Amino acid sequence: MFQYLIRRLLIAIPSLLGISVILFTVLALAPGDPFEELATNPAIPPEVRANLRASLGMDDPIHLRYVAWLTSMLRGEWGFSFVSRIPVDQLILQRLPTTIIVIGASQVLALAIAMPVGVYAATRPYSLFDKVANTLAFVGFSLPTFFTGLLLIMLFSIQLGWLPFVFRTDIEATGWRWWWEMFRQSIMPIMVLGLFQGAAWTRFVRSAVLDVIRLDHVTTARSKGLPESVITLKHVVRNAMIPVVTLVALQMPVVFGGAIVTEQIFRVPGIGSLLISAILANDTPVIMAVTFVFATLVIFFNLLADILYGWLDPRISYR
Amino acid sequence: MTENDLRRLLARVKEGTLSRRGFVKRMAAVGFTAPMATQLLAITGAAPAAAQSVPEYKPTRRGGGGALKILYWQAATLLNPHFAVGTTNQEASRVFYEPLAGWAADGTLYPILAAEIPSVENRGLAEDGRSVTWKLKRGVKWHDGQDFSADDVVFNWEYARNPAVAGVSIGSYRDVNVVKVDDYTVRVEFQKPTPFWADAFVASRGLIIPKHLFKDYAGSNARDAPTNLRPVGTGAYRYVSFAPGDMLRAELNPNYHRENRPYFDTLEIKGGGDAVSAARAVLQTGDFDYAWNLAVEDEILKRLEAAGRGKVNIVEGGGIEFIQLNATDPNQEVDGERASIRTEHPAFRDPAVRQAMSYLVDRNALEQFIYGRGGPATANFLNNPPRFRSTNMRWEFSIQKANEVLDAAGWARGRDGIRAKNGTRLKFVFQTSVNAPRQRTQAIVKQAAQRAGIDIELKSVTASVFFSADVANPDTYTKFFADMQMYTTTMPQADPQLFMNQYVSWEISSKANNWQGRNIVRWRNEEYDRVYREAEGELDPVKRAALFIRMNDLIVGSNHVIPLVKRPTVSGSLNNLRHILSGWDNTHWLLSDWYRET
């Protein structure tokens, strides 16, 4: 087990290096530069822009830039944003709490919907409940988030005027009022993301449980006369969870990465909106940092999922 | 009316034998608009000292106005004006920092940290145009209580012109010399007579940062200055908190140097999102007081306005959407350079073809069906300030006339209906950036051209490529490797000198200057060059205005440039908000004077 862990971690190093090389090259090859706005402003002579580029080392050959980036990254320096000229780690840390709260809550909501509904629907296949749940799930993941987001804004903010649609990080209130305001402004983005994800996961949980429920050991458990609830929880759900765990674990990095579209619609200052504005402004250090952290998290959660398998299914061993 | 008549009339106004109203009337009789006539009075010193360029400020005490909430759909990322690459960052810095003077909506200067606007009369402007002396306002304090003085102004010059600082304002400061005369007087000296003296220390490029907080960061360590993100300025509002790319908060500055200002107790500027929902948040739900740059279809804005809570503000500046007809041949290579200046465009070298192209653009339709209030049709390239606007140019949409012109010039229709002459077919590539209104405009032009026997192939390039300065990419607008192209160019100052250098021959964009020259259409005209040189050194404002009008007539008259619509700035605000906007300066240029009518 320990050896397995070490081996997996060692394999992660070349994959991360490979990822960083690819990201860096793609970004360097992409057109545009962070001082584009200066280019169209007649009051700024072109030399000024050239000087700025040179001072930020943007004219060096790509391999030199990559090595410089890598060495400073290894020393724990993430570089600074071309656009706001402040360290990238500060920018990311500033946005992490909001991202984790909003995206994290939506993932929890999605799980809270998907698990019970999926399992219940699978234990009673083709019942009325199953049909309704299926239909809603199809509707849920067929509607893109930008559409449901706008729909909710139209209904709750504009027609009814109940909820604000501009997310604010610093609410001027304390105590329960702060919590209430926070709840009011977060509920729409959380709903949009959570229902979308929940709908997809419901389908997945249902089919995973259906696969297990027909197996012989479940029939055996039934013939032993075990109560239905014990059968479902102990013999069905636990076995059905293996694929679900992979799916959920792979989804976890998204909690860090944020949701670009939803954040943009509700003006949630999360990492997704940081990434998209950095991409639009060609702010390479920020794009690199966010995507690289994202890649690291994907690899880490993959490993975590593999380890969880062992706990869920003792037949799996690590060598 | 000749220049001499004009001068005689102006002299009579100054002497008092002709009333100002009488002057405006006479001017109207010969076709000058009223704003233009008043401007003439103002720039020649015949206007009353307190020019009515800024509306009256009504509140009678400081504060008590509650919160002012502003929404930007692009978010500010830093608060040092010398590093402010885009408009949003300039706007955010402008909340805290102030220049010596700002540009009012009518293109005149308005003093902010200066005690008065320099002029020849008050001895601020040197007669030879080689220096300008600014008298600073006394008793101005930085937000931390320190006094503002000439040292701060001089420091800003040293800071901005230092290449190690790598600021974006360097262009305004590196060629001037700044001298401290006394604690409240500075002199800006120029290398040659400079009619346009109001660049350094003025408006968005002139925001003054405090010496005592930046002096240790005036070199390559400029990026590390803590004040870059926690500004200490002289403005009406002082810093509370800032989250880059998200939210900026400020509060009333109790020691502000202008009395009874500001009106609002707190200020917040929220960034991010998109333009349509920003318009909604102001016009429809009233959650915010003001929304910046509503790049939204006019039809949607009108629908939102119908809610009755807010209104759309249209502020004229110099921005213009226009078509360029390449003067060089993009399909021929000379020494490995396409569209080389040594070639001539095979079709556009014939004035008749250019004339026909101009007839084929239906500007009325563009205004009516595409741009709405955000794009009034125009015949001029140089539209504002009004004193520089030509009255000689006309535009007309007529497919019939286009056909006649082409027939007369010998461009005969071939079997496929496309005109040709001496083996040159009227088949053009028309490029622009990916953008809904631009692509609709392309389609309208193509349709009309088809009916005149001209075949246009449409091409649209992603904005991030089209507007980039990427030397390796052939699709950038500065390379212009197409027959026609269309985009918007903006005029950042109320003076057209920098704006009109887009057509001088020494600015031609070519391989030699890495396609960084400003003359993208690659048009050459000796008269234009001469007139431009003359205007650069002309100190008489009336003569100078006439020179710029001549330049406009030359380039527009050549039809190498076809002006389409003006692009004023469009913003939204609540009905009860009284703001002061200007097309020549930042939105927040006079934020101190904003108030709410109750």
Description:
Chain A: It holds the Pfam family BPD_transp_1. Chain A: It is found in: Cell membrane. Chain A: Keywords: Cell membrane, Membrane, Transmembrane, Transmembrane helix, Transport. Chain A: It is a multi-pass membrane protein. Chain A: InterPro entries: BPD_transp_1_N, MetI-like, MetI-like_sf. Chain A has about 325 residues and is mainly alpha-helical. Chain A has two domains: about 30-75, no CATH class; about 90-310, MetI-like fold, CATH 1.10.3720. Helices cover about 75% and strands about 0% of the residues of chain A. Chain A is built from 13 helices and no strands. Chain A has helices at about 1-30, 35-40, 45-55, 60-75, 90-125, 130-140, 145-160, 175-215, 215-225, 230-255, 260-265, 270-280, 285-310. The mean pLDDT of chain A is about 85. Chain B is an alpha+beta fold and about 600 residues long. Chain B folds into four domains: about 5-45, no CATH class; about 60-80 and about 235-315 and about 570-598, D-Maltodextrin-Binding Protein, domain 2 (3-Layer(aba) Sandwich); about 100-225, Dipeptide-binding Protein, domain 1; about 320-565, Dipeptide-binding Protein, Domain 3 (Dipeptide-binding Protein, domain 3), CATH 3.10.105.10. Helices cover about 25% and strands about 20% of the residues of chain B. Chain B has 17 helices and 24 strands. In chain B, the strands form seven sheets. Chain B has a seven-stranded mixed β-sheet, with helices on both faces. A five-stranded mixed β-sheet of chain B has the order 19-18-20-12-21. The two termini of chain B are about 50 Å apart. Residues about 45-50 of chain B have low confidence and may be disordered. Classes of the chains: A mainly alpha (about 325), B alpha+beta (about 600). At the A-B interface, α2, α3, α5, α7 and α11 of A face α6 and α8 of B.
